[in-house]
Fold Chromosome partitioning protein.
Amino acid sequence: MRIIAFYSPKGGVGKTAAAVNMAYLASRENISTLLWDLDPQGAASFYLAGAEVVKGRKLSKLLEGKSPIARFIHDDVYPNLDFIPAHSSFRNFDIKLEHDEGHNVLKDLLAPLSEDTSLVVLDCPPTLSRLTEQVLEMADKVYVPVVPTWLSLNSWNQLREFVKDKKLGNKKLRPFFSMVDRRKNLHREILAQPAELLGAPVNAAVPYASVVERMGEEGQPLELLAPNSPAAVEFRKLWVSVRKDLWAR
Ligand SMILES: Nc1ncnc2c1ncn2[C@@H]1O[C@H](COP(=O)(O)OP(=O)(O)OP(=O)(O)O)[C@@H](O)[C@H]1O
Ligand SMILES: [Mg+2]
């Protein structure tokens, strides 16, 4: 079982859109995938299956060991794609985790799923908290949307420093460009020299596109909603790089 996370300390940069699209693209290749929405705002539900979705369950039962993680999973939202929806109690995750200093609770929670699940995709909230520290520690790779602006680059560099300081494994961070608007000089300038500016290769540049916003309204991954759109093409590129990162194929 491989575990990937979509994370940035910056809000509204495209983490959830990418997490849902990657989980869906994985499931289409017969990879048994679990998407876990760790953000109490619960946006992933909307992108994945629209407003009719899927109520989450209170976290305390899971953390107290009273309910196994399987009880929190909605099976086959799409074929090969299971989903753990968020619940407003997820905002208390950090308080709960404080009592488990030095012990990766998330990793233990996911362990029973390892036989049936090939890929876990974690959609993280935009906070730098105990929860995100645990995610950064246990994920095989962490994908970080970077909008091509100086502020976003700054956040990226801060994240790298943080991961390095805490010895969480800075080789696991994978940036990709998000919400790219090539009409803007600054965006073009930054896109022209990604390796220099980010200190890492960048394998996809998702354009700013209203069709991505429509994922939330229609409740569908982009591959279903608009597979021929330039944004869908970039998400597929990102998926190919994820697959290479995880399975070298
Ligand atoms: N490439 C894009 N083009 C246009 N709009 C986008 C794009 N990606 C995301 N959006 C829109 O921007 C908003 C934020 O996107 P998303 O929820 O994916 O970001 P996030 O980083 O997960 O946000 P949060 O930090 O709140 O969890 C949403 O309304 C979404 O529809
Ligand atoms: Mg989000």
The CA atoms of residues 59 and 89 lie 6 Å apart.
